[in-house]
Amino acid sequence: MELQELKNAWAEYDKKLSENLKINEELLKRMNLDKSKNELKTPMRYEIAQIIIMFLLACPMIFYGVYMIDQPLFSVLSFLSAAIALTCMIFSIKRIKAFVKVDYYNASVLQIQKEITSLKIYVMKFRKAEMILSAILVFSVFPVLMKWVHGFDMFTSDHFLDPIIRLTVIFAIGTPLGMWLSKHFYNKKIENAQYYLNEIERFSKEEQNILQD
User: Fold this and answer.
1) In the chain, what are the domain boundaries?
2) Residues near 197 by Cβ (< 8 Å), separated by ≥ 6?
3) Per-residue model confidence as pLDDT tens digits over 77-88
């Protein structure tokens, strides 16, 4: 085989290699973009569930606050619980809007990475405030529910220790459980979405190195 034929064969091999790598990159990009997008669906469902739960809590709390207007303490606690629930709803609606803004169809992989990084920062911005509000909500709604459901006034009863123990147990179990759920079904999903995008970038760099070599 002559030198020119070897050069032609080698050029043809380079062309096929380049084409195969581009096809593989495109397939990986499509698959990982779909995976990344699907990972963000779980946090969005989490936010939708929170909106529903907080709405179902806020409505009866407003009603009971008006109903107990002649007992200022329970009325104030009811309205406080409703206000916190509505605030958490607003937080969730804002986060859902942030999730929807991530453009998987028209933006580049690099741009999507930046958007998800910004999304993660945006989500974490609300986290501390929401944890504090959740703690206040537990302590404000519990006495109201005890009064409403059981007719028990824990502020005037001699048996106030029992509900306080219950409340402490609920808080002790609920706080770490909420943190665990947030970590595994929220933060982890956003990290997975970032991972699939990073995988596309790594493959693209490896492809460029192969073609350069």
Assistant:
1) 34-207
2) 32, 33, 36, 109, 112, 113, 116
3) 999 999 999 999
